[in-house]
Design goal:
RBD_domain_sf, Nucleotide-bd_a/b_plait_sf, 2 helices, two-stranded antiparallel sheet, Polypyrimidine tract-binding protein 2-like, 129 residues, alpha+beta, nucleic acid binding, two-stranded antiparallel ribbon
């Protein structure tokens, strides 16, 4: 298991972030190449390996405590479920958005309206069974 840190931006700078990610089977180079240069909030990301192996969480009560969050035990952590990782499905970012776990009561028009309300344009849409 390899670990790498995506350092697009540094801890105290508002236009900075430090993300710790664990990549299995040496795919960190592939992940970094797919993410480096991609635009996020109007700015190109710069993804590099860090000299640090882990992100240090601030101590309780420290003024920077709100700037750092550990999501490793979050119930929304999508790779915690057994069998959720499929390493053959690693692709560069694209204009295609894949959604899953959509309740059967949600219709295509519901999703189109949802995306349109945030300024997105839906060019094509398909439900898979």
């Amino acid at each position: 298991m390899d670990q790498f840190i995506c350092a697009d931006k540094g801890k105290k700078l508002k236009k900075s972030a430090l993300s710790q990610t664990t990549i299995v089977c040496g795919n960190q180079v592939l992940a970094m190449s797919h993410l480096n240069g991609q635009r996020l909030h109007g700015r190109a990301m710069r993804v590099t390996l860090s000299k640090h192996t882990t992100v240090q969480l601030p101590r309780e009560g420290h003024e920077d405590q709100g700037l750092t969050k550990d999501y490793s035990n979050s119930p929304l952590h999508r790779f915690k479920k057994p069998g959720s990782k499929n390493y053959s499905n690693i692709f560069p970012p694209s204009a295609t958005l894949h959604l899953s776990n959509i309740p059967p009561s949600v219709m295509e028009d519901d999703l189109r309206r949802l995306f349109a309300s945030s300024g997105a344009t839906v060019k094509a849409f398909k439900f898979f069974q």
